[in-house]
Amino acid sequence: MDLSVSSSEQGAVTIVHVAGEIDVYTAPLLREVLDKQVAAGRTDLVVDLEKVTFMDSTGLGVLVGRLKLVRGQNGTLRIVSAQERILKVFKITGLDKVFHIYPTVDEAAEASNA
């Protein structure tokens, strides 16, 4: 399955919507989209993984790398997913303690404004 990545803005927050499978073949697309947002000065990011059906360690690596990138610019990167199979990947790796994970895009965007 392919990966589709799009973005929208909700105030100062940029929401990156991801759908499909994030693996060694598709992760570079996600990295490229996130890097373009950061390069454009959009460092308050919400990555919506609700429509992601699979994510491997390559996908996690992209997210960790972008988290470090935005934190270096006093930004934030929050994750949206209520899917158990995606949340399990974060829990197994301990990254659920590193990322702020929300069940909905609205909750993640509101957390930014708090």
TrEMBL record:
Q: Which residues does the UniProt record annotate as the domain STAS? A: 3-112
Q: Which GO terms describe its molecular function?
A: anti-sigma factor antagonist activity
| Pfam families found in the cross-reference section | STAS (PF01740)
- Keyword line: Phosphoprotein
Q: Looking at the record's lineage, which domain of life comes first? A: Bacteria
CDD domains per the record? STAS_anti-anti-sigma_factors (cd07043)
Q: Does the keyword Nucleotide-binding apply?
A: no
The record, for NCBIfam families, names:
ant_ant_sig (TIGR00377)
* Family of this protein: Belongs to the anti-sigma-factor antagonist family.
Record's function text: Positive regulator of sigma-B activity. Non-phosphorylated RsbV binds to RsbW, preventing its association with sigma-B. When phosphorylated, releases RsbW, which is then free to complex with and inactivate sigma-B.
Q: Could you tell me what this protein is called?
A: Anti-sigma factor antagonist
